[in-house]
Amino acid sequence: MRRLVASLLTVLLVGCASGPAMADKRVAFVVRNSNYQNVVALANPANDASAIADLFRKTAFDVVESRRDLKNTDMRRALRDFTEKARDADIAVIYYAGHGMEVDGTNYLIPVDAVLERDTDAYDEAIALDRILQAIEPAKQLRLVILDACRDNPFVKSMKRTVASRSLGRGLAGVEPSRPNTLVAFAAKGGSTAMDGDTKNSPFTTALLKYLGTPGLELGKAFRLVRDDVMNATANRQEPFVYGSLGGNDVVLVPAAAPASATNADTRADYELAERVGTREAWNSFIAAHPNGFYADLAKAQRNKLEQGKPPAPVAEAEAKPAPPAAEPVKPAEMVVASRAPAETKPQLSLPPDLPRLLQTELKRVGCKAGEVGGDWDAAARRALAAFNDNAGTKFDIKLASLDALDSVRARTGRVCPLECDRGFRAAGEACVKIVCDDGYVLGPKNTCEKRPERKATSAPRRATGGGGRHCFVYGGNSFCE
């Protein structure tokens, strides 16, 4: 019977060992400018940008850099840093929510400290769209800029024209990217403005959240669906528009999930079958079909445990022991019954004793676990799994370590939880680097460089003379004589 089960196991495991293909590296930079210093603040960009950043994290982007209320210098530095992250990326995305403007046919994104008294100030105080495109230029497959910045521009009303013929258009001007596989998506068609809407998110971002995260959805179709939703929501008053072009191959922002037969589901099912048989031959068959990976390591441990717990018999006994009779041929009907019988009383998969340590190791690899990795499922480990749930969109029970959680974390190829740095440091790739402010700037309460406040001069005592050769002083509203 043992030989029969081992033979059946070998047949069931053939051809099931195939590893997942390496995923493309995807990086995203999300900016929201809402608390403008010289015009009225915007309400929706904070919600819009936060929701988009969460979408990228939940769809397992390798890098999601999210910044808010950037001043001119900070925005230029952030773009420079993101260029390094996009250097080895396949897909690079920049999403911007805030004020934008068009001056003489050139589009600009407006930092929160802009004054823009004259039309020419845009060259110095705003960020040209061409600079945004340069930041994602190194990406190999797709370069995508999404601009929810086509609102009415409050700076235009008070801005002085230095040249009467210089145009200051409504919204943003249409563009034509010079690089292939580059798209620029506007919330509203060139020369028109977008609406913030009456809900938590703008109509444009609401549609983006609905379609961009759909696994396997071709990007061009996703933006066509976004256009239809926005036009329906705004009674055809706002039409999103995408500039640029893609090649003939389908481009997706979020890859489709691998079919179940290509994931760990088959390997785990085979492991359960080998465990039900529980013999050395069964584990050998499993390892032959699945020579590498987590379950292969477990199977080898199970086989070693069998060999250590049952020492081999002495040579004399082995020779004296009569050989067992040959097994009778089994009819096909009996084979079917034998293969189905275990499924009726399927036992629970036994958990490896070091599962907490294995899960913590993987949580640390994807950036969700800080500190040391231990063998106990303690409060720090529970916090790490909770952070993974928040950023990956999963709902694993944090009270215990489970194989399902381990499988899910192992499937992630890059960082899931954002890198958190102490005050005075900022995230740069996978490390925290010290923030160094330029001369005349100091580190502010928001962990950004701010202009050093000027010291107020203190008033000196005022000297007065009194009668009789006495000298009197007036200081702080009081008189003193000596």
From TrEMBL:
<feature type="domain" description="Caspase family p20">
    <location>
        <begin position="24"/>
        <end position="154"/>
    </location>
</feature>
<dbReference type="InterPro" id="IPR029030">
    <property type="entry name" value="Caspase-like_dom_sf"/>
</dbReference>
<protein>
    <submittedName>
        <fullName>Caspase family protein</fullName>
    </submittedName>
</protein>
<dbReference type="GO" id="GO:0004197">
    <property type="term" value="F:cysteine-type endopeptidase activity"/>
</dbReference>
<dbReference type="InterPro" id="IPR011600">
    <property type="entry name" value="Pept_C14_caspase"/>
</dbReference>
<keyword id="KW-0732">Signal</keyword>
<dbReference type="Pfam" id="PF00656">
    <property type="entry name" value="Peptidase_C14"/>
</dbReference>
<feature type="region of interest" description="Disordered">
    <location>
        <begin position="305"/>
        <end position="329"/>
    </location>
</feature>
<dbReference type="InterPro" id="IPR001309">
    <property type="entry name" value="Pept_C14_p20"/>
</dbReference>
<dbReference type="InterPro" id="IPR052039">
    <property type="entry name" value="Caspase-related_regulators"/>
</dbReference>
<dbReference type="GO" id="GO:0006508">
    <property type="term" value="P:proteolysis"/>
</dbReference>
<feature type="signal peptide">
    <location>
        <begin position="1"/>
        <end position="23"/>
    </location>
</feature>
